[in-house]
Design a protein that fits this description.
alpha+beta
Length: 126
């Protein structure tokens, strides 16, 4: 009888731990999304000035010697990497593949004047 109760307690603790992990990862994903969303107006402004562009790996990249708002660009690229890794785990692929697919989507939706990098690594303005 005591062994059965012990197994039940262990089972319940395991379930509670899994639920905690799922809730925590959802909260982290939500906060990541909010941080990225909050940065967008500043990133859009940097793109409009031609200071940054979207490379063919799905990351922001500076287009000249000037590198304003370095921490902003770095933070966005780090968050993109986290997102790409999470998607890669779900889809059983690599973060690089996810980034390349995302780069193609970004290029398709980018407004005129945005710096983009093609598959061959050449930069162009849309």
């Amino acid at each position: 009888m005591k062994i059965r109760q012990f197994k039940t307690i262990i089972w319940l603790l395991t379930i509670l731990s899994l639920i905690s992990i799922i809730v925590a990862s959802g909260a982290l994903a939500g906060s990541l999304k909010e941080k990225m969303k909050a940065r967008q107006p500043k990133i859009i402004a940097l793109k409009a000035k031609g200071l940054i562009g979207e490379n063919n790996l799905g990351y922001l990249e500076y287009r000249g010697a000037k590198e304003p708002r370095k921490e902003l660009v770095k933070a966005d690229n780090q968050d993109r990497e986290s997102v790409y890794r999470a998607i890669a785990r779900q889809q059983k692929t690599t973060a690089e593949n996810v980034g390349r697919r995302r780069a193609a989507q970004i290029a398709e939706r980018a407004p005129s004047g945005t710096w983009l990098q093609n598959i061959q690594g050449e930069w162009y303005r849309k």
